[in-house]
Amino acid sequence: MKGIKAWQTFLLIIVFLGTGGGVYGWRHQASNAKAAALPANTQLVAVQYGNVVNAISANGSLSFPNSADLTFGTASTVLKVNVNVGDSVKKGQSLAAIDSVDLQRAVAQATFNLKTAQTNLINAQNHYAADDLTKASASVALATANLNKALQAQQDGKTPDVWVVAVKKAAVDSAQNALSVAMTPDPLVITTRQNAVTTAQLNLQSAQDVLTTLQAGPSAFDVAKAQATVAQAQANYGAASDAATKFPDDSVKQAAAQMALVNLQAAEQALEKLLAGPSEADLSRTQVAVSNAQTALTQAQKDLLNAQSPDPLVVAQKQLALSQAKQDLLDVQTVNPVTLAQLQLNVASSRVSLNQAQETLAALQAGANADEVALKQLQMDNAKAALDDAQEKLISATMPAPFDGVVSTVNIKVGQTVNANAVAISIVDTTTPQIDAVVSEVDISRVKQGQRATITLDSLPGVPVAGVVSTIAIQGKNTSGVVSYPINVQVTPPAGSVLRTGMTATVTLVVQQANNVLVVPNRAVGGNSRNPTVTVVVNGQSQTKPVTLGLSDDSRTQIVEGISQGDMVLVDTSGSSQQRFFGGPIPGGGIMRVIGGR
Fold it and tell me: Which one of 336, 435, 479, 549 has the fewest beta carbons within 10 angstroms of its own beta carbon?
C-alpha cells in the first residue's frame, strides 16, 4: 500500500495478530467438524461480527499558517529586545525597539519642512510685500556682480603665472640632481663596506682557528703548562695554610689561605677539563660561531656589491619624480583645459543665477502666478506625505505583536545594527495548526472539505490528534508522472502537548465504515461480482449460498445477508489460488481494515 510508514505497518501487524486470535477461535470451533471431508488446501472458519473501516492515508507535516515575519522598516541600532524564542505574546505587546533619535530628528525636520511649504504656499497665494521687491532687486545686483567676477577669472585663467612657472622649473632641477646622486656610488660608503668585509673575514678565520684547536685536542705543551699551574697552586696553598695555622688570629693570613685554596681548585678543574678534551657543547657553540661568522661575511660582501652599483628601485623612483616634475612644469606653462572649462562653467552658472534673479524680480512685479501657486501646493502636499512617512517610521521603532502567538525566531540583539527589511522577529499563532499533506489522484475524489481526520505525529506516538479537512487544492502536482493534490487539515491541538512546525504527520481520512457487521475472509467469497457466493459446511456437507456483500478491505469482507453468525464457511488456503473477483488492496493506496469483533 502506498504511503504506509514502518510504524503503520507494525500497527497493522498488531491488528492482524489480534484478529488472528479470532481466526484461531474459528479454527477451534471447526475442529469438531468432519475435517476429513474437506477438500485439499481449504479450512473452515466461523462467521463473526467485526468493524470494517475504509480509510485513506496521507503523509504531511505540521505548520502554523498564521505567522508573521516582522521588520522595523528602517535601518537603526537595536535598543531593546523584550522577548525570547518560545515566549507567548499578546497582540500589541512590545517585542523590541530600535534607537529612534534619528527618526525623531527626521520627524522634526519633516515638520519644519511642512511649515516652510505652508508659508511658501501662503506667500504664493497672497500679494508680495514691498520689501520682497527690494530683496529681489538686490539679488539681481548681486548676481550681476558675480557674473562680472566670473568673467574676469576666466580671462585671468588664460595667462600662465610667471611665479608658479619658476617654482616648477626649480623642482625639475632638484629632481634631476637627485637622480644623478642615485646613479653615482658613494666612495665613503664603498670604503666602509670594504672594511666590513675585511673584518668579517678576520672573524671567520678566528672562529675557524678556535674550532680547529678544539677538534685537535690539548697539546703536550698545554698539558704540561696546566700541570705546572696546579703544582704552583699546591705550593702556594701549602705556604698560606701553614701561615694561617701558625697565626690563627690573623684575618689576612686566613683570607690568603682561603684564596689559595680557591686558586688550587680552579687550577685542578682546568687541568681536568683540559685532559677530558672539548665537550659536545663547546664544539657545538664553536661551530655555531663559525656559521654566524660565515653568514656575516656573506652579508658584508652583498652590502659591498650593492654599494658598488646603484639601487635600481631608487633610480626608478628618482626617474619617476623627474618625469612628474617635468609634467608639472609643462602643465603650468600651458593653459589647463580642465581649469579653463571650470572657469567657463562658473561663467555659465553665474549667467543662470542672474537670469533666475531677474525672473524672480519680474514675477514679483507681475503679482501672483497660478502656476507658482500650484507648484507650492504640490510642494506642501509632498512635505505632508514626508511627515506622515517619518511619523510612521518613528512609530515602527517600537515593534508590536500583530496578534496573540508564540515567538518562533529572534534574529536581533541589543546593540546590533539592523537593515530596514531584515526580519527581526517572527511569531506564529499556535492556536490554529494545520497539516499540509498530499493525496493521490485516485483518492482525491473521496476527500471532502469538512471531513474529519485522525492524525498521528511521529514526535507524539500514542497521542491521538483530531482534525478536519479545511482546503483541497484545485490544481494537482505532477511528480515523475504521478499526480497528487495538496490538502490542508485543520488540527485540534491535543491537551498537554506542544506542537512544532515541521512535525511529520500521517493523516487518516475515514471514507466508509461499517461497525458490528458479519465478516468473512476474502478467500471465502466465490462466484463473481454480480452473483457472489460462499460455501457453508453443515454436518460435513458443503452448501454454496448466494450472499450480498458490503464493504471490504484487503483481507475481510462484510456479509450483508445470506449467512449468519456461527456458520462455518469454507476458505481457500492455497497460496497460488486467485484472489476471487475482488481480491487485493483497494486501488489508490486506501486502507481497509477490520477492527475488533464480538
Answer: 479
pLDDT score for 155: 73
One-character DSSP codes across 478-528:
EETTEEEEEEEEEEEPPTT----TT-EEEEEEEEEEEEEEEEEEGGGEEE-
Task: Using the structure block, give the residue that is written with the C-alpha cell 550681476.
Answer: 144
pLDDT digits (tens, 9 = 90+) for 409-452: 999 999 999 998 899 999 999 888 999 999 999 999 999 999 99
Q: Which of 61, 60, 55 is nearest to 443 (CA)?
A: 55
Residue 571 β-bridge partners? 43
At 477, which helix (H) or strand (E)?
strand 477-479
Instruction: Please state, in angstroms and rounded to a whole number, the distance separating the CA atoms of residues 185 and 309.
Output: 6
pTM beyond 0.70, yes or no: no
Cα gap 225→119, rounded to integer Å: 115
Which spans in 334-446 are helix H? 337-366, 370-395
Q: Spell out the residues 6+ positions from residue 271 whose beta carbon is closer than 8 angstroms to its own.
A: 223, 226, 227, 229, 230
Q: What is the pLDDT of residue 278?
A: 76
**Nearest partner of 56 among 452, 565, 498, judged by Cα:** 452
Amino acid, single-letter form, for residue 103? L
Of 493, 505, 433, which Cα lies nearest the Cα of 64? 433
pLDDT of 15 strictly over 70: no
Instruction: Please state, in angstroms and as integers, the Cα–Cα distance from residue 472 to each residue in 456, 480, 589, following that order.
Output: 20, 21, 18
3-state secondary structure of 432: coil
∠ CA 465-468-469 to the nearest 5 degrees? 130
Whole-angstrom Cα distance, residue 160 to residue 215? Answer: 81
Task: Say if residues 586 and 592 touch (Cβ distance below 8 Å).
Answer: yes
Burial (Cβ within 10 Å: 0-12, 13-18, ≥19) of residue 448 = exposed
Opening angle at CA 8, ends 7 and 11, nearest 5: 90
Q: Tell me, what amino acid is at 101? A: V
pLDDT digits (tens, 9 = 90+) for 264-307: 899 888 888 878 777 788 778 888 988 998 999 899 888 888 77
